[in-house]
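<context>
A single protein, sequence plus fold
<entry> Chain with its tokenised backbone below
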Amino acid sequence: MKWTIGTIGTIGAVSFRVLLVSAGFALLIARSPTEQAIRLAGYAATAAFAALISFEIPRRNSRARRSKRAV
């Protein structure tokens, strides 16, 4: 039960940060010239994808290790 509350709290804090950064980024793009905004959005999408992958790989590895340990 404690880990459930901790997980929900962590996800909530991370979601708030992501929302805050997204709002700031949207403001930045809205004030940029068109070509620069497109380039900046491309860089941001690449960085977001890399962050997602770097988060997912260790999570999958630890899940695989746990399932091997249980056998």
Summary: The chain has a mean pLDDT of 73.
